[in-house]
Amino acid sequence: MLGPTINCLRHELGLPRQGGSDFDAIPQLSMYSEILSPRPSDWPKFVHITGSWILDAPEDYQPPEDLARFLEAGEPPVYMGFGSMPIRDRGAVLTAFAQA
């Protein structure tokens, strides 16, 4: 999936291309909780589910005034996103989010 992008960058850096099997040795970190989605049985061993990566806010944190007003104005917002996952049909995804 990332092979073409990685090889494009390698070309720009003057490095040789890598073949498909070369990518199999690269560990992958999946930063989500298995409570949300269990690990698929067919995933290779180099894919590691780490759990969510959440940093504690500093004790003295105060949000900007406009953000605080927004949060106080209604129901708590819900964030739905796919991080860095490439999406081919953004319109369809946005429609699905709106319908949910």
What does this protein structure show overall?
With 100 residues, the protein is mainly alpha-helical. The protein is 32% helix and 6% strand. The chain has helices at residues 3-12, 20-23, 65-72, 90-99; strands at 28-30, 47-49. A two-stranded parallel sheet has the order 1-2. 0% of the residues are buried. The mean pLDDT is 85.
Q: Let me know the number of strands.
A: 2
List unreliable stretches of 5+ residues.
none
Globally, the shape reads: elongated
| Topology order in helix (H) and strand (E) letters | HHEEHH
Spatial separation of the terminal alpha carbons: 28 Å
Structural class based on helices, strands and sheet pairing: mainly alpha
Q: How much is the radius of gyration in Å?
A: 20 Å
Mean pLDDT over the residues: 85
Tell me the β content: 5-15%
By DSSP (H or I, 4+ residues per run), the number of helices equals 4
**Helix percentage:** 25-40%
Largest beta-sheet characterization: 2 strands, parallel
How do the strands of the widest beta sheet line up side by side?
Answer: 1-2
Q: How is this structure best summarized?
A:
The protein is mainly alpha-helical and 100 residues long.
Please supply descriptive tags for the structure shown above.
single chain, 100 residues, mainly alpha, two-stranded parallel sheet
What is the topological layout?
Blueprint (H helix, E strand, L loop, with lengths): L2 H10 L7 H4 L4 E3 L16 E3 L15 H8 L17 H10 L1
Parallel strand pairs: 1-2
